Automatic annotation (TrEMBL):
Residues 46-144 form the HTH araC/xylS-type domain. Transmembrane segments: none annotated. This is Helix-turn-helix transcriptional regulator. SMART domains: HTH_ARAC. InterPro entries: Homeodomain-like_sf, HTH_AraC, HTH_AraC-typ_CS, Tscrpt_reg_AraC-type_HTH. The lineage of its organism: Bacteria, Pseudomonadati, Lentisphaerota, Lentisphaeria, Victivallales. Keywords: DNA-binding, Transcription, Transcription regulation. PANTHER family: ARAC-FAMILY TRANSCRIPTIONAL REGULATOR, HTH-TYPE TRANSCRIPTIONAL ACTIVATOR RHAS.
Length: 152
């Protein structure tokens, strides 16, 4: 295929321009198809979990997820629950709390700023949610982290 394209480019015949474009398009399609065969496709559940773990500050509804993946809400919930033991909303909340724990180790970030970075509309709701998951408020958790020995 490359040889044919090379020969037609060398002729510089304006009449063969359309044929050249057609062959170029065929080559691109062929390369794209070969590339898509070599890219491993993620299982649907992994794709769903990746979507739930990304952009934690954005609101993602169950309806949005189910529509984007051509699944019913019940099927989506059942798949995520089977894989994680949690509903999609619970799983996303847990991801937010894990990210909050990471942020709490950065002393320059206030609790309010962490809450907004994670998409909470108020730091008070964030504190309640954090305490429900960890048993401590963010401030208590931050104080507790300071007492632990640092890893080297």
């Amino acid at each position: 295929m490359f040889k044919k394209l090379g020969e037609e480019v060398d002729t510089l015949d304006t009449a063969s321009f359309g044929a050249l474009m057609g062959k170029s398009y065929q080559l691109l399609v062929l390369l794209a198809l070969r590339r898509s065969e070599t890219i491993p496709k993620l299982p649907l559940i992994q794709k769903l979990l990746n979507m739930l773990e990304s952009d934690l500050a954005l609101h993602i509804s169950l309806a949005d997820l189910s529509k984007e993946n051509n699944l019913s809400k019940a099927t989506l919930t059942r798949m995520v629950k089977r894989a994680t033991g949690m509903t999609p909303i619970q799983y996303r909340a847990q991801c937010r709390i894990k990210q909050a724990i990471y942020y709490l180790e950065i002393p320059e970030l206030s609790i309010k700023e962490i809450a907004y970075r994670l998409g909470y509309c108020s730091q008070f709701y964030f504190s309640e949610e954090f305490k429900r998951f960890t048993g401590k408020t963010p401030t208590e958790y931050r104080r507790y982290q300071k007492t632990l020995p640092k890893e080297k």
